[in-house]
Design brief:
Blueprint lengths: L1 H16 L5 H5 L1 E2 L10 H4 L7 H18 L5 H22 L4 E2 L3 H17 L11 H12 L10 H22 L4
Antiparallel strand pairs: 1-2
Helix pairs in contact: 1-4, 1-5, 4-6, 4-7, 5-6, 5-8, 6-8
Length: 181
């Protein structure tokens, strides 16, 4: 619950602040050709959303992902994991798209979806992921529908979500093997 609350409070705060300031301009993730040593943007880009719909969809997906993960992994570790993997995702995306700008919390959500996949592989003692549940249907629906390029009008959404999933899956496996997660 801690991780969900922290992310949603940060997302909501930045969304509300966007009515007074241009948060896209101030905080969005930027490609390596245009970031101008403002590397904090790898993190802050995760906080800004295009609109209320974008924010609500990411918050709902985060709710269901963390509903499944609840009690399986320490909350502080989940928060650190999602922060690190989300920021790494933005860093890699910035290298692949050096002249781009990106925003949104979906790298956080896809990182945590990858952690669910890691648990299925590494922790056979835990209950498995079940598509015939509300959380299963929400997560599967989000994973599919969020890759349809509604806002970006190109394949960058699929790319950034794939990066987030891949980075988190690899770091999740390593973290589990060395007991960091």
């Amino acid at each position: 619950m801690y991780t969900r609350n922290v992310w949603i409070i940060m997302w909501g705060t930045i969304y509300l602040a966007s009515f007074k300031a241009d948060c896209f301009h101030l905080l969005s993730n930027k490609g390596t050709n245009i970031i101008e040593n403002q590397y904090y943007r790898f993190f802050t880009g995760l906080l800004v959303h295009v609109n209320c719909f974008h924010l609500i969809i990411n918050a709902a997906a985060l709710y269901w992902v963390l509903y499944f993960l609840d009690g399986k992994i320490n909350e502080i570790k989940l928060m650190i994991f999602s922060l690190v993997t989300g920021s790494l995702t933005n860093m890699i995306f910035s290298m692949l798209y050096p002249n781009s700008q990106s925003i949104g919390g979906s790298p956080v959500v896809f990182s945590l979806i990858a952690l669910i996949a890691v648990l299925q592989v590494v922790r056979k003692d835990l209950p498995g992921f079940n598509l015939n549940t509300a959380y299963g249907q929400w997560i599967a629906g989000y994973a599919i529908l969020s890759n349809i390029p509604v806002f970006s009008k190109n394949s960058s959404t699929l790319v950034i979500h794939s990066i987030a999933f891949s980075v988190a899956f690899i770091l999740g496996i390593i973290g589990m093997k060395i007991n960091l997660i």
